Known about the structure:
Chain A is mainly α and 163 residues long. Chain A is built from 6 helices and no strands. The model of chain A has no long low-confidence stretch (mean pLDDT 83). In chain B, the strands form 2 sheets. Chain B has a 6-stranded antiparallel β-barrel. Chain B has a 6-stranded antiparallel β-barrel with strand order 6-7-8-11-10-9.
Amino acid sequence: MKLLLKWFSFIILALVCQNLFLSFTGIKTNLFFLLMYLFIITYYFPKEQKRNRAPNEFYPLLFCVIIGLIEDLEQGIIGPSIISKSVTGFLLIKLAVRVFFNWNEQFKGAIIFIFTLIDEIIYMTILIYFFNLSVESLVLITEVLIRALLNVPLGLFITWGKP
Amino acid sequence: MGKKSSLFFLFLILLLSFFLIIYQSKGKLSAPNFNFSQISTSINYIKNLIKDFFYLREENDKLRKQLMEMSLQQKTYTELIDENKRLKELLGLKEQRKDILTIGKVISKGSKKYSKTIWIDKGSDHGVKKDLPVITPNGLVGKVISVSSGYSEILILTDPMFSVAIKIERTRAEGILSGKLNKCVIKYLPLEEKVLVGDRVVTSGLDGIFPEEIIVGVIKSVNKKEGLFQIIEVIPMQPENKIEVVAVIKKE
């Protein structure tokens, strides 16, 4: 219950920060990805190993789906973010399991950047393909790159020293 | 739950999402739009509050600056109006008196410690000479004591070195008025002369410097207790701290 409350408050905080940042700078951030990333890192690299069992893949994936759903509810279209977040989350889970011993800060920075890009590209592609979103490609690339670049320092900050 | 089940879960989610997307894109289904208005509203409120604070501070600074400029401008206007009034008065004086040589503006006060002098912007180039009387529409100011080409120094009537032959306008009793640094006194007026507080004092013209009937001041107090003569204090008609424009008059 405590854990649920903690992550729920994190979601609210991310939502507030995202809106706050948008209000002040006019730049839309992708803090939900960072939340997802934080969850996976915390889930796969806990401070104390409580059980002698391999961590389950289902919970982080469910978390990613919930995050995607919340983002979709905010955007008014259900689906694109669920897909992008669950695919990115799934890949991130696989990565966390496979390269367990290689998590240094540079690697984390690169992971955040690349996976934010993947998340955004999937989301944009769905919007462009299914909802005929017409935006100049240069603007689109710039926006996606800004979000990915902004996520790197923020992601490193919130997961500093982890794992 | 194993790896296969998580993959199956992902597949299920993706499939469901695609169906939802397709339905939404065709307009057959519309998703509820939670725009988190309360969060947005409060954020916007805080944002506007901060924005307003900085805007108001900036506006306040701007308005303060503007107010300062306006008040300075107003001061200038008031000064111009005053100057205009004074010049009009002097013009009236010039029309009344045909002996006015020139009109000068006071440019500074004399720097001597125990002397009361002022400097005007008219000198020998304008016909000003030593010992010429200086007046304003209110009354006598003093006399010229030194002249250069463009400037003149005026000894004003409260200076201890200044003296002028006067008479009491009402009784025609004659005496000598001298300065006492911050006031003027009438000397050598016999005790039997009846002088009242409020009597006007004018020049008598007997000293050969000042023409007759220039208003000098008003009697402030009369003391008959000492010696053979009365000691009479006079308030100058032209206060020395309000001399700004003066007229130099010709000797007859």
